[in-house]
UniProtKB/TrEMBL annotation:
InterPro entries noted in UniProt: Diguanylate_Cyclase (IPR050469), GGDEF_dom (IPR000160), Nucleotide_cyclase (IPR029787), Rev_trsase/Diguanyl_cyclase (IPR043128)
Boundaries of every GGDEF domain copy: 102-244
GO molecular function: diguanylate cyclase activity
Domain of life: Bacteria
Protein name: Diguanylate cyclase domain protein
Classification of source organism: Bacteria, Bacillati, Bacillota, Clostridia, Eubacteriales
Amino acid sequence: MKKFVQIFTKLFMSHAPLILSLLGILLWLLAYFIYWFFPLHQARWVWLSVVVVLIFNGISLGEFVKTLAVKGYTDSMTGLPNKGFMYLRLNIDMEKYAKQEKEYSLAMIDIDRFKNINDTYGHLAGDKVIKEVAGILRKSVRASDEVIRWGGEEFAILLPETSEEGAANLIERIRNLMENHDFGPEIASQKVTFSAGVVSYKKLEEVKAKENRLTNNTDLIVNFSDQALYQAKKTRNTVWRFSQGIIA
């Protein structure tokens, strides 16, 4: 049932106008069927008018519903997908990559000392930093990757067909890029850095097999990447791979 809901949600978000238009046509066919059993004067023209109205309303309503759905899964500040979308996609991806036995990695990113930026330069300056960081992340990944606004000063990147090492190398390049980026006079050209935790799906499977865990893969990969991020935050401006181990 859960899988059906995920697939239906994904299809409806992408094809809402078409689905509702088809529904309008089906209603017209039903009305036309009734006409043959209950003939009315010039009823054919009435039903033709009905189908035109239903299709038009279906398209309009579909676009409206699609807009609401997109807004529900989009961060208003950065335009990036939000945490809700991330869980939706991760649930689908975890099942897909489990069957295909391909690499898949998740990176969690946290801007270092972001509270100090807000406290020193104000929330408008902080918002500008968030938007610029989002832009840098988006421009630094492939079209198949997904940058997520997790919330606050945290981001996540979904990296299909990418090993933990490959993901860590990519995030390290972005970290260097970020460290040397000029964020402008709003924060007195202060350097902005981030810490990141990376984990791969294969490492997830290794731990599950070793410890005989039955935890949902989506929850587990988020939890492990968060543990790696926590490790990176101890020294800041660092990328930490889950396979490096978690030190208490």
